[in-house]
């Protein structure tokens, strides 16, 4: 089959080539891939840290070509959304049925392919914060894939949403259209305290956002885009003066919990138009170099989608 293979001799670290067809395990379905979306983490780190000839990729949408031999998962011919640690950048993918959601018939599979990492991370991070109705929730790195989904889902959950972005003037209108009530440049600019934070940035912004937590508030550290560590000043973790019972929790999407209900629900919401997938670049996978370059250079705000032909 054809696939995007790692090749460190190219500018993007990828090239279109031939590789062996995947051989599904009994609990895996064989999926014919229609589209895949790129995530900053995989193009920034996974390509650089992989050997030549490897097929990477986390997110993909397509159609079940062969159902799982153990009888789990959907039947052949079902449109699906898939997530795994690799294998998405190829014509075919073998996927555990526990990480495969059903997609409504007729949905745009390119839009659906944006969901697995970005949408599921946003949903599960917000769920960790707790019930959202009437709460104040801050989303940092709000113009990224996870951030855009988090803004929309927090608003759907009944939260008052604060969106943080490095360019409020340029992205404020778009974030408000997604559901943000307030758009700020930095967590320190938030007026008052917040009940929860979905942090996609890390570093000094995470520290500042933690300082904005109300009692019993929770910050979920989802992304680490700055590549910087977190240094808390003395006293930042005190629990007196109304700062008690605040939590900072780490996050890992593939924590063993069943992803099928979440992926299926998110796919239905995107297909119905309730959630905007935030596609900011889309093209054939022969143009992968363009998409990777735009992501690494910070020129994309949202998701890059490659259509597999």
UniProtKB/TrEMBL annotation:
CDD domains per the UniProt record, alphabetical: MDR4
Domain of life (superkingdom): Bacteria
Pfam families in UniProt: ADH_N (PF08240), ADH_zinc_N_2 (PF13602)
Residue stretches making up the Enoyl reductase (ER) domain: 9-306
Name of the protein described by the UniProt record: Zinc-binding dehydrogenase
Source species of the chain: Nonomuraea insulae
Lineage, uppermost ranks: Bacteria, Bacillati, Actinomycetota, Actinomycetes, Streptosporangiales
């Amino acid at each position: 089959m054809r696939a995007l293979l790692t090749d460190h001799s190219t500018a993007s670290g990828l090239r279109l080539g031939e590789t062996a067809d995947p051989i599904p395990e009994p609990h895996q379905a064989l999926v014919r891939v229609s589209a895949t979306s790129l995530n900053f983490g995989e193009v920034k780190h996974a390509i650089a840290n992989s050997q030549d000839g490897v097929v990477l990729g986390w997110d993909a949408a397509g159609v079940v070509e062969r159902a799982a031999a153990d009888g789990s998962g959907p039947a052949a011919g079902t449109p699906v959304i898939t997530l795994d640690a690799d294998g998405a950048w190829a014509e075919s993918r073998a996927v555990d049925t526990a990480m495969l959601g059903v997609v409504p018939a007729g949905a745009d599979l390119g839009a659906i392919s944006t969901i697995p990492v970005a949408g599921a991370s946003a949903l599960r991070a917000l769920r960790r914060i707790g019930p959202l109705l009437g709460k104040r929730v801050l989303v940092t790195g709000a113009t990224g894939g996870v951030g855009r989904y988090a803004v929309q889902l927090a608003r759907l959950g009944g939260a008052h949403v604060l969106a943080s972005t490095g360019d409020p003037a340029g992205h404020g209108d778009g974030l408000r259209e997604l559901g943000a009530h307030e758009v700020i440049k930095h967590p320190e600019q938030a007026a008052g305290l917040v009940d929860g934070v979905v942090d996609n940035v890390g570093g000094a912004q995470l520290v500042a956002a933690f300082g904005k937590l109300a009692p019993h508030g929770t910050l979920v550290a989802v992304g680490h885009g700055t590549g910087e560590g977190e240094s808390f000043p003395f006293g930042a973790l005190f629990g007196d003066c109304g700062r008690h019972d605040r939590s900072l929790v780490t996050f890992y999407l593939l924590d063993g919990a069943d992803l099928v209900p979440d992926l299926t629900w998110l796919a239905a919401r995107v297909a119905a138009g309730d959630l905007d997938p935030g596609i900011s670049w889309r093209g054939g996978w022969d143009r992968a170099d363009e998409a990777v370059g735009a992501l690494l250079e910070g020129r994309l705000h949202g998701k890059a989608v490659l259509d597999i032909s």
